[in-house]
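<instruction>
Derive structure tokens from the sequence
<entry> Chain with its tokenised backbone below:
===
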Amino acid sequence: MQMNFYFISSLLLCTTLVLSAYRLFTNKGWLYKAYDKPNWLYHMQYFSIFAAAYLAVQYFNSSIFLTFAMIILVIVHLYDLYAKKHFPQSELSILRDFSRGTWLFVVIFTLFRALAYDYSLVPSESMEPTLFAGDMLIIDKTHYQSKITPFNGVSIAWRKPQRGDVIVFSSPDNPNINYIKRVIGIAGDRVQYKDQDKTYIVNGEALSQNEHEYISTDSYIEQADEYIDGQKHRIQLDDLFYPSFSKENLDITVPEDHFFVSGDNRDHSFDSRFFGPVHESAIVGKASHRLFQLKTPSFKHWFISFSKSGKLE
């Protein structure tokens, strides 16, 4: 689904550039001069700016994009002041026309995403049955710490994640990709995993599981309630799936400022069993709410479902 957004944004951006260039050169104008344009092209150009902003945020670090947007805003403002003084009768340039309001909005929007709240689609089934691929989440970036953009290494810590929290963090392999998992162990905890019964043992006590049930009479997918520090969440187990996510005799003590995380879909999750505990500097925020879920349209349901919207536990 996210690739569809990439495709639509890229198509809009390319189409707008082609149409704008065609009209510009057929009217014998220069790239820096304004020209008469129909309203439909004017609106397309504005939408293309938002498309470019979306692609920049998705393909690059949002802090890098924020820095770039602020530099553009300063350049446009200085040029605007220069043009008003030296060319008071000149036509409004295309760049100035685009940037006066739009870049300020983009900067504010990106600041909000970088510092306070962000949104993200769940890309895989690793957190089922708590979260499903296509769920749109709200990420609270101030719950644990406030990072000073664009200096991600500088932050103000408010609190640390607790066992049972669902957190979003940067991938150990690619900082531009986020993972979402549940915290199983915090600093100093001894975490063991028994692959045969698919149970975590934290500080010598197994995380209890009950209410086991198969999701249908002919399915090998089983769900159960699991408890961490008295908090209940649902996990999913695959009776036929062992090899790829098998981790026999896992026994690790979580280092200082690190967290052991795991997916609720116990047999289909790439997590700390494989890449180790996550450092707190990699934490993006806490997954606080589910806005909606994107679905494949059918006669049974709409493209967007709000049936599971609400605060995440």
About this structure: Residues 29-35 have pLDDT under 50 and may be disordered.
